[in-house]
Amino acid sequence: MNEGDIRKYAALMAELGLTGLEVTENDRMVRLERTPAAAAAPARGSETVQVFAPQPVQPEEGVEVCSPMVGVFYAAPAENAEPFVKVGDRVRKGQTLCIVEAMKLMNEIMAEEDGEILEICAENGQVVDYGCRLFRLKRQS
After folding, report:
1. Terminal CA-to-CA distance of the chain, rounded, Å?
2. What is the 3-state secondary structure of 70-101?
């Protein structure tokens, strides 16, 4: 079983609203579990965790940058640091836009093309789902 298969099962879980899935294939077993959005535990004291599902595609200007995984969105490299990007910033292909923390790993999300930030669709510290829109970019011509 490869990473692509595991991602496919995780997406299926989210789509069907499942909290657990066990798959056995060629003498290998993988069990995936997640906390349902309604029962999410409070984070950092009294704050609540919101899970943002993928947003429906709307005919809007720009290119969407979506989360490749479930995790926590961070707009800056550290708590009191400046965000990686702001609305109106011009970005280059390969430039870091944000971090998505998944399973204690900090995953940098990078721009796949040159553009200008039109919208930041997630808030710092929020849980994002696979496929959730993080940014909207205007392509550079």
Report:
1. 41
2. CEEEECCCCCCCCCCCCCCCEECCCCEEEEEE
The tens place of each residue's pLDDT in the chain, 141 residues long, gives: 677 877 887 887 777 777 777 777 777 777 777 776 544 444 455 455 555 555 554 556 788 999 999 999 999 998 889 999 999 999 999 999 999 999 889 999 999 999 999 999 999 999 999 999 999 999 886
Structure tokens at 35: 């906390």
Please tell me the pTM assigned to this model: 0.57
Structure tokens at 33: 């579990």
Burial class for 22, CB neighbours closer than 10 Å (0-12, 13-18, 19+) = exposed
For residue 96, what are the β-bridge partners?
110
